[in-house]
Automatic annotation (TrEMBL):
SUPFAM superfamilies: ATPase domain of HSP90 chaperone/DNA topoisomerase II/histidine kinase, Homodimeric domain of signal transducing histidine kinase. Residues 181-233 form the HAMP domain. This is histidine kinase. It is a multi-pass membrane protein.
Length: 457
């Protein structure tokens, strides 16, 4: 396939239009224009015939046979033939073979006036036969005109048409030139910005004022640039926070290892020293696992979700049993265990684990896990009776690496938000009457399930 740029496409489009118009004229013109001029020729003949209804001058000065061959454009000739045998034609009779055909048409004619044509000498003669009375004798008034008049009109129109077509073609190139410049300028600007983005330079904003369509395109491009900018900053922030969070346990492990190597025990004995190293290694492992899982959730956006129908209690009681031993002074209460949730079991387990683990750090003595079902939503609540969260911290709790009071790594609630969004829902946190409540709102059905239910209904 031949590749052409926008400028060539515009030129080709306008040239194609001109060629199509020219071909249409060449095809339609001979049919329509010639037919119209033929009709006009007959009208002129009939008009002259009526004007010469009493051809006294022609009778006084009869024309000879040579006059019939005078093909002067627009000239109408007249002659008469009688409806009685033996009487010669009067006026400017045509040659014998033409006169015979005209006479036969005249004798067969039933209407008062008829139109005919005949080929003679490589040309066409148009003639009109009208019934008349000469000295009380029935006769036929025959008026004729050569096609020279029609052909001259056709040629003149052709010349004018060619001039008009050439002029129109030349003038049509002006809007083509304007359109080329009109489209080229914004495309060059967009192309330059795309080149900048390809080079990871998306700081310069794009604002295009002018045509509504290009302005809408530039607005969409600007939103893309802003999203890329936000993604780039988030990626850099993620790396910075991850490096900072991993740096501390690595430094602890490294310093303890050097101390042991030098024969110095930072703790009372070797066992306690090794426990610190193992604890920091486990802490670092947990952070790495959280980071890997958080980045894994990003890739799941483009994959088809593997959702299933899950009973809330099957996950909630399992988590309650797992976290019960971490703080024996805290009770974990479960309600709405029979509520069914449509989602990914593994992801929902991680979501509840992070919420309960977060609640354990702040709860005084009770954590409530509940699930309720409304007409179009499933709501999961995890509430604890700990201290209220400062108002300025509430909007930021679900941001990656944001740690509140007693926070550990800052990814737990970010993972909760990401899992919620993968299920088409949204998270919410608020200070309640007893403490702090985290609420997760899931749609009751997926979009495809809604369509199936509607069809079944």
């Amino acid at each position: 396939m031949i590749k052409v740029n926008l400028t060539h496409r515009i030129w080709l489009a306008f040239i194609s239009i001109i060629v199509l118009v020219g071909l249409s004229i060449i095809i339609i013109y001979p049919i329509s224009i010639k037919g119209t001029l033929t009709e006009e020729t007959y009208r002129l003949i009939e008009h002259e015939q009526i004007r010469s209804a009493y051809p006294l001058l022609d009778l006084l000065n009869p024309r000879n046979e040579h006059d019939f061959t005078d093909r002067e454009a627009g000239r109408v000739g007249h002659f008469f033939i009688y409806d009685t045998l033996g009487r010669p034609a009067e006026g400017a009779p045509p040659p014998k073979e033409v006169l015979q055909e005209m006479a036969q048409n005249a004798y067969r004619q039933e209407v008062n006036r008829g139109r005919y044509e005949i080929q003679y000498g490589g040309a066409t003669v148009f003639y009109v036969i009208a019934k008349a009375q000469i000295d009380d004798y029935p006769a036929f008034h025959i008026s004729y005109m050569w096609d020279t008049y029609r052909d001259q009109m056709v040629n003149r129109l052709w010349e004018r048409l060619v001039y008009i077509l050439l002029l129109t073609s030349g003038l049509s190139l002006l809007p083509a030139i304007w359109l080329k410049h009109y489209l080229r300028q914004p495309l060059i600007v967009l192309g330059n910005h795309l080149e900048q983005i390809a080079n990871r330079d998306w700081k310069e904003p794009l604002k295009w004022k002018g045509d509504e369509d290009f302005q809408r395109l530039s607005d969409q491009f600007e939103r893309m640039r802003q999203n890329l900018n936000l993604y780039d900053r988030a990626q850099k922030t993620f790396i910075q926070h991850a490096s900072h969070e991993l740096k501390t346990p690595i430094m602890v492990i490294k310093s303890y290892a050097h101390s042991v190597k030098d024969g110095i025990l930072p703790k009372k004995n070797m066992e306690q020293t090794m426990d610190v190293i193992i604890e920091e290694a486990n802490r670092m492992e947990r952070r790495v696992i959280d980071m890997l899982y958080y980045t894994k959730l990003d890739s799941l956006k483009e994959e088809s979700p593997k959702h299933e129908q899950i009973v809330f209690g099957s996950i909630a009681f399992q988590i309650e049993e797992r976290f019960r031993v971490q703080r024996e002074d805290v009770k974990i209460l479960v309600s709405g265990a029979e509520t069914e949730i449509f989602g990914d079991r593994e992801q929902l387990e991680v979501l509840l684990e992070n919420l309960v683990e977060n609640a354990l750090r702040y709860a005084k003595d009770t954590i409530w896990m509940s699930a309720t079902s409304t007409e179009d939503q499933i709501i999961i609540n995890v509430e604890n009776n700990g201290e209220a969260i400062p108002a300025h911290d509430l909007p930021q709790l679900f941001n990656p690496f944001y740690k509140g009071n007693k926070g550990k790594f800052g990814l737990g609630l970010a993972i909760v938000k990401r899992i919620t969004e993968l299920h088409g829902g949204y998270p919410k946190v608020e200070n309640s009457n007893v403490g702090v409540k985290f609420s997760i709102y899931f749609p009751k059905y997926r979009k495809d399930q809604k369509r199936k239910n509607k069809k079944m209904g």
